[in-house]
């Protein structure tokens, strides 16, 4: 199975890059202070806004998604600011850690890994803040470490008219599950290139509400690289404050064209089918899922390894036998779960193939399952959905 | 002349990317926590060290070169630290500004734009610091805004055994002009991908001496994305703290192979010929150069536009007529100079062609020069050098 270059890459990012996008990136360099780039940055910024469902300003950084998380902290949270960080896993913790590192007084509300945040808990905590000392609420859209999606709309409603900025890490969720930046009144939304945008890692996005823009003007945190005031000033003239990652811009233009053609809501519906077929297939194999159906992510599915069989052994075998790459568990979930990414440039058939490989590997490892049951179940879901 | 995709791109970055490097970047994604990436990061880190002429640690960030400048500040300079910033242009000013933004007490020594820093001035200033309060000396190797190269070796010697960290911005100079990180005892050296490394923008490099590593352990500046302690911890296991810019890593591997084959000292010699032929050619056209021969950069050449003829008019015409892209002047040098980049993947013949185009454009714009004189002079230089 390993004779070809492409693997079955089913990670929650980096996701497989379509070959036309790869090709588009092989274009020669241009002057990043010239007319072609001016056109390019205007076009892709508008395209990204459509995915975000926003008319807010969008800034693109040459960085990993974590860079946009740092930008969301240093532009909008000043040292000493009280921040409510809602965490349901590794990336919620990371956001809280970055805020702490940059001087915020962080109060973290943790929910058990594998569960979603309860909006009622946040509503109560916000109601207690009569002096309105909380300056920002930081929350994860899709928690990549567990495969759980938070109900951002309800959490936003729970914060209500409290003046805290509402900051969302949507790195692995945007473009895979519905996120209404404007309708839901989200102040700052972070994302990255290597997930639903289907391009290689190296671009990070930030959508910024007018209210957040005002906060950034007076934010006292130190910043140069991540300074959105500078980025927006340059954006007006079709430039960036320092050299942009040109090849990734070429790729982004191509990928956005594909996304535009398919339509963002169709893309989201497609990802929901991924979720349903993978979950049904894995369940039919008799395996347990980490997340409940009600909060299950459309970007990835976390599966608990069968009793006595390490998750990483399954992963290794999938790689060796079938060149299938899936993710392991992180931190306390290491070797406990494996994570099947189904995000971006993935086909239904790819997922059927991976379910089939998983079945074969499990049988080989001595798990008592019936070959084909998981695959058949997933096929049935596809037939039901009429895809 | 504009029928083909590639321009004559003679900028001091982004520089033209070789087609084999572009092709190498069109590879599918891989798991950035898997065995292939572990091998890849080890290989390119070693390759970058050879260009740096160092055995020090090297860290690669998914960022523009400016990101590595910020990393050089937040890891090694604490708020309140006294910093001596040596500036000979826009990028020297930028480094000073970043240090200031992050709380350093910056004393800037400015030299006139177009000149190099005088090591004696720095020696005197350092000698006055009897209490050894200066924690870092920050200096530019090649100043991209003027086309002047600083004598880093002499400036380092001028600092002598003063304990200040010696931090160098070598973004546009490394790989084009000699820089001996270890022999010259440079503590932190910053560079970027889109210059002599011949790959697109989006990777930034930092070489760090053992002494600087110790300073970083106790540095009180806030940092997460740029934290080299975290980067080095992950590097040990063949990973990065957050998703690396994979495609650019593929490109870097390919480009480093090319550089290894040619040999770093041959590359440097080639760039010196670029400098000599362009300067001789431009002088033979009767134009004036901004920088003196003794301090002239091998990465780019700054040319003063003829009296009464704006530099940007010449640039526009070069673009329209011949698809030749050269850089303009920055800030107070805007419209006063134009800058011919000759860095990285450039051929001698490319530069002859551009000199020819420049002559034709100047004649068309009414400048009284003799067609062919500049080109011929440059040819003579090539013949003399035996290339």
Concise account of the structure shown:
Two copies of one chain form a homodimer. In chain A, 42% of the residues lie in helices and 17% in strands. Chain A has helices at residues 19-25, 35-52, 65-74, 90-101, 119-128, 152-159, 210-218, 228-236, 246-262, 264-284, 311-322, 348-364, 373-385, and strands at residues 8-10, 57-62, 82-87, 105-110, 134-140, 142-143, 148-149, 165-169, 188-192, 203-208, 288-289, 300-304, 324-328, 337-341.
Q: What order do the helices and strands come in, and which of them pair?
A:
2 copies of one chain form a homodimer.
Chain A (H helix, E strand, L loop, with lengths): L7 E3 L8 H7 L9 H18 L4 E6 L2 H10 L7 E6 L2 H12 L3 E6 L8 H10 L5 E7 L1 E2 L4 E2 L2 H8 L5 E5 L18 E5 L10 E6 L1 H9 L9 H9 L9 H17 L1 H21 L3 E2 L10 E5 L6 H12 L1 E5 L8 E5 L6 H17 L8 H13 L2
Parallel strand pairs in A: 1-13, 3-4, 3-5, 5-8, 8-9
Antiparallel strand pairs in A: 2-10, 6-7, 9-10, 11-12, 12-14, 13-14
């Amino acid at each position: 199975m390993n004779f070809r270059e492409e693997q079955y890459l089913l990670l929650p990012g980096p996701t497989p890059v379509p070959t036309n996008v790869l090709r588009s990136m092989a274009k020669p360099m241009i002057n990043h202070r010239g007319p072609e780039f001016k056109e390019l940055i205007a076009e892709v910024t508008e395209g990204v806004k459509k995915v975000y469902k926003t008319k807010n300003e969008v800034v693109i950084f040459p960085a990993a998604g974590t860079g946009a998380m740092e930008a969301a902290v240093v532009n909008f949270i000043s040292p000493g600011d009280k921040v409510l960080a809602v965490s349901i896993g590794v990336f919620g913790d990371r956001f809280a850690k970055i805020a702490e590192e940059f001087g915020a007084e962080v109060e973290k509300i943790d929910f058990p890994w594998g569960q979603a945040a309860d909006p009622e808990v946040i509503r109560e905590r916000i109601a207690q803040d009569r002096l309105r000392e909380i300056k920002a609420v930081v929350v994860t859209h899709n928690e990549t470490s567990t495969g759980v999606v938070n109900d951002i709309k309800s959490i936003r409603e729970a914060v209500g008219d409290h003046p805290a900025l509402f900051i969302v890490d949507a790195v692995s969720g945007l473009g895979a599950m519905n996120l209404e930046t404007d309708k839901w009144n989200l102040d700052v939304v972070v994302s990255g290139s290597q997930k639903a945008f289907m391009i290689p890692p190296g671009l990070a996005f930030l959508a910024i509400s007018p209210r957040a823009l005002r906060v950034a003007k007076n934010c006292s945190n130190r910043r140069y690289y991540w300074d959105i005031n500078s980025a927006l000033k340059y954006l007006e003239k079709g430039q960036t404050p320092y050299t942009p990652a040109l090849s990734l811009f070429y790729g982004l233009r191509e990928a956005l064209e594909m996304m535009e053609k398919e339509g963002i809501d169709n893309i989201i519906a497609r990802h929901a089918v991924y979720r349903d077929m993978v979950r049904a297939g894995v369940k039919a194999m008799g395996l347990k899922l980490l997340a409940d159906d009600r909060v299950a992510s459309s970007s990835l599915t976390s599966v608990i390894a069968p009793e006595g069989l390490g998750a990483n052994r399954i992963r290794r075998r999938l790689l060796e036998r079938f060149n299938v790459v899936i993710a392991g568990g992180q931190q306390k979930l290491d070797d406990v779960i494996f994570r099947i990414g189904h995000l971006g440039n993935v086909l239904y058939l790819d997922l059927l193939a991976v379910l089939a490989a998983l079945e074969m590997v499990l049988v080989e490892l001595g798990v008592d399952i019936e070959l084909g049951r998981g695959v058949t179940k997933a096929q049935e879901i596809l037939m039901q959905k009429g895809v």
